[in-house]
């Protein structure tokens, strides 16, 4: 009887060790995968979501590249879709004009915030600016 119990404990301990090693390999893989995305984005400007993605009740990417003119809003017709109830169907627009990026609120209901201040005009974005849309915070990286 003792031999059967000791064999069972040995198999369970081995299984736990394998699961632990598997989780470490998975974390390394995800880290390398996110690093490869970062090297691809070094060519141009991008938006990084500051919020923890696992706390949101909708899906979002961690990074969004900026090329040309992009729109952000709740509608699926936008380039970046945010399914937040505090985001308008067509909330804001970011325009690239020869490497200079400008942000414009598209008469959204709850407004667009740049570094904590409500914007009313077209404003030039600078590296490190924080863009607030509903509950989402983006970091502009050039």
Automatic annotation (TrEMBL):
| Species, as recorded | Urinicoccus massiliensis
What Gene3D superfamilies does the record point to? 2.60.200.20
List residues traversing the bilayer. Answer: 12-32
Gene encoding this chain? embR
Q: Which domain of life is it from?
A: Bacteria
Report the Pfam families cross-referenced here.
FHA
Identify this protein by name.
Probable regulatory protein embR
Give a yes or no for keyword Membrane in this entry.
yes
Q: What taxonomic lineage is listed for the species of origin?
A: Bacteria, Bacillati, Bacillota, Tissierellia, Tissierellales
- Spell out the PROSITE patterns in the cross-references: FHA_DOMAIN (PS50006)
Q: In the UniProt record, does the keyword Endoplasmic reticulum occur? A: no
Q: Which InterPro entries match?
A: Cell_Proc_Reg/RNA_Proc, FHA_dom, SMAD_FHA_dom_sf
Domain (FHA) ranges: 70-119
Q: Which UniProt keywords apply?
A: Membrane, Transmembrane, Transmembrane helix
